[in-house]
Amino acid sequence: MTRVFIPLDSFAVACGADEIADDLTRIAAERKLEIEIVRTGSRGMAWLEPLVEVETPNGRIGYGPVEPGEVEALVKAGLLDGAEHEKHIGRPDEHPFIKAQTRLVFRRCGITDPLSLGDYRAHDGLKGLERAIALGPAGIIAEVTESGLRGRGGAGFPTGIKWKTVADAPGAKKYIVANADEGDSGTFADRMIMEGDPFALIEGMAIAGVATGADKGFVYLRSEYPQAIRIMQAAIEAARKEGVLGATVLGSAHAFDMEVRVGAGAYVCGEETSLLESLEGKRGQVRAKPPLPAHQGLFGKPTVINNVISLVSVPFILAEGGAAYKEFGVGRSRGTIPLQIAGNVKHSGLYETAFGLTLGEIVDQIGGGTRSGRPVRAVQVGGPLGAYFPRALFDTPFDYEAFAAKGGLIGHAGIVVFDDTVDMLKQAHFAFEFCAVESCGKCTPCRVGAVRGRETLEKVMAGERVEASLTLVEDLCNTMKFGSLCALGGFTPYPVMSALEHFREDFEPAPMREAAE
Amino acid sequence: MGYAHAFDPEDAAAIIDELKHLEGPLLPILHAFQARYGHVSEAAIQLIAGGLNLSRAEVYGVVSFYHDFHEAPHGRHVLKVCRAESCQAAGGDAIAASIEDALGIKFGETSSDGQVTLEAVYCLGLCAASPSAMLDGRLVARLTEAKVSALVEEVRL
User: Fold this and answer.
1) Which of A227, A383, A212 has the alpha carbon at shortest distance from A311?
2) Is the same domain home to B87 and B145?
3) Best residue in A10, A224, A298, A418 to probe B by mutation, most B CBs within 10 Å?
4) Which terminus in chain B has less CB density within 10 A, N or C?
5) CATH of domain A2-99
6) For residue range A5-14, what is the model confidence (pLDDT) as tens digits?
7) What total of structural domains would you count in chain B?
8) What are phi and psi of A367, to 5 degrees?
9) Does residue A349 belong to the interface with chain B, where contact is any CB pair within 8 Å?
10) Taking CB atoms and an 8 Å limit, are A185 and B127 in contact across chains?
């Protein structure tokens, strides 16, 4: 029996992985080949997806990117024996892109069957939860605090402090909410881990439940992720059957159960208070803080609301200890971060590493430059609300404080690469347009500012009173930055102002731009 | 996908009864209606408001807030094309324009024969395989002109 591994991750499925699996099943039946197909998550080498792996005496051998329709030819060429072929990439775990990573959170992703709890246990799964139950709430919170873990959604708030606040809050009913509303363009880490290792999120949430006394969890998952929704739901079912979730978590005195809730296409629901409103069945409008969700969150109860990556970092921290996690990273940015390298880039995908690599190392060396072969001109870091960085800032190390010092943010660690054909005035205009489409409408700077900003940049595009219009845009950005209720209005100035500051030539009147070229 | 079911108050009431025990049941109910009937009609809003003891204005406010809920029926197919930054960086604007041309409709519109609704979506999480789209819940990435032609062919059937 030869085992063949085909990813069920959205990257692979969107490029034909299901057809490839069907073809292989059919071909095996026709030729009476003894094979077993295992559907896995993705290794994160997205440019090689669908990446088909076959188990051989020399380890797993990968082929990619496999096109639907070439399975027969690959089988003839000896795929099932790991034979040489132009798509043969050798052992994926020996691939330079994988080998240089520090995979703590994504250590199982792409290797195991995401829906097999047996596989999960065999690869160190549930060790964190078992130790958490033995330690009890105070011990768990001490480990998480010791690890230095900060919220991976973008705000970078210390997770241990958040948990302690909820644990100390009075009340019998508390909630754990996983923010899986990963709306930032250029990000897919939450999706990949939910599709490739869903039990890790379940384990992280159960640990949070034990630590804070919450017995109910919600995964607020965006509707744009149909595959993640299916897999997460199936994993929760499996975890319930095996007693990981339910009235007695792993046979302990703690009760914890959870469910998936599907978002409805509103970007702003990635903001934590707006997400809570949405979960309650309301318009996803931002709440004023205080009160903090840790005191009055979902249905007014104390609530831990964490990003998916924060929660899936916790099982490692509990299993290996906070000190082991803290070993990685720089300054106040401890541990690892799954970089998501996207846009116009040769080696696109997910790269988990300790904080501290420079932006240049990430884009030029790991990413390998642009897919189009043209020079890199701009890199947007941190999603649609992140700043555009020029090559001149490529020496910036990837950590929360270093990016803030350069007028940017790391956000959810999405990195979108643009080549020299990009028009930065158009990108700044898009930032306002996006904010106008997605604004929840509650506060004026965001609701009105985005529309006025878009209109003013349209004047610049038309060459109308350019200098005066740009002064107005700067003024507007100041108002939005300091006057908005949440990050949508508050951070839209980042892409706009960084484009203006670093790529001023794109904002000059058209005749001057032509003269410059 | 498509929506084979015409709105039927009895059938709709059964959906509400099945889901109303959930904590925060409104979004799950609206998703169920949208999936089954292709839209959330005035009559549906009235029924939901009654079932959950909310005002019609409250339910309408939620329906109109979210991009996923439609007050009028959409086409038999829904093609969502990502227009966000990563896809823009990878030639997505040209792909989006060629889809508009091939279907003869703009984003936000439904073709006159009711076959397809074209919608912009801001990120499908396929950014390392841009540009991308979703046809009736099926993901398609690394879009090329050839893949666009195949998608257009499919929605015309």
Assistant:
1) A212
2) yes
3) A224
4) C
5) 3.40.30.10
6) 999 999 999 9
7) 2
8) -75, -20
9) yes
10) yes
- Which fold is adopted by the domain A329-419? Ubiquitin-like (UB roll) (3.10.20)
CATH number at residue B86: 3.40.30.10
The reply to whether A181 touches chain B by the CB within 8 Å rule is no
Distances (CA, A) of A135 to A105, A294, A321: 21, 22, 12
Contact in structure between A420 and A374 (CB atoms under 8 Å): yes
A59-118 residues touching B, CB cutoff 8 A = none
Tell me the nearest-neighbour CA distance from B13 into chain A, angstroms. 18
- Amino acid symbol at A281: G
Chain B residues closer than 8 Å to A49 by CB: 129
Q: What whole-number distance in Å separates Cα of residue A151 and Cα of residue A307?
A: 7
Nearest to B115 by CA among B136, B92, B131: B136
Domain that residue B48 falls in = 9-65
* pLDDT, tens digit (0-9, with 9 covering 90-100), for A317-368: 999 999 999 999 999 999 999 999 999 999 999 999 999 999 999 999 999 9
Structure tokens at A329: 């990273």
Residue-wise pLDDT tens digits, B105-125: 999 999 999 999 999 999 999
Quote ipTM for the complex.
0.96
pLDDT digits 0-9 by tens, B44-102: 999 999 999 999 999 999 999 999 999 998 899 999 999 999 999 999 999 999 999 99
Q: What DSSP line would sit under B68-101, residue for residue?
A: T--SS---SEEEEEE-SHHHHHTTHHHHHHHHHH
Give the number of beta-carbon pairs within 8 Å between A and B: 152
| Residue A267 pLDDT greater than 50, yes or no | yes
Kindly state the average pLDDT of the residues A151-168: 95
Query: Cα separation of A145 and A511, whole Å?
Result: 57
Q: Looking at the complex, does the CB of residue A496 fall below 8 Å from at least one CB of chain B?
A: no
B71 lies in some domain: no
For A424-516, CATH number?
A: 1.20.1440.230
Q: What is the pLDDT of residues A245-262, one digit of tens each?
A: 999 999 999 999 999 999
Confidence band for B3, pLDDT divided at 50, 70 and 90:
low
The pLDDT value recorded for residue A509 is 74
Q: For residue A271, give the DSSP letter.
A: S
Contact B26 A224 (CB under 8 A): no
CATH of domain A117-326: 3.40.50.11540
- CA angle, corner A179, sides to A178 and A180, nearest 5? 100
Question: Which residues in chain A are closer than 8 Å to B140, comparing Cβ atoms?
Answer: 14
Q: In percent, how much of chain B has pLDDT > 70? A: 97
Task: Identify the band that residue B1 occupies on the pLDDT scale cut at 50, 70 and 90.
Answer: very low
* pLDDT score of B19 more than 70: yes
Report chain B residues whose CB lies below 8 A from the CB of A427. 85, 88
Whether residue A185 and residue B86 make contact (CB cut-off 8 A), yes or no, is yes
Per CB-CB distance under 8 Å, the chain A contacts of B128 are 11, 46-47, 188, 340-342, 345, 348-350
Q: Rounded to whole angstroms, how far apart are CA atoms A146 and A137?
A: 14
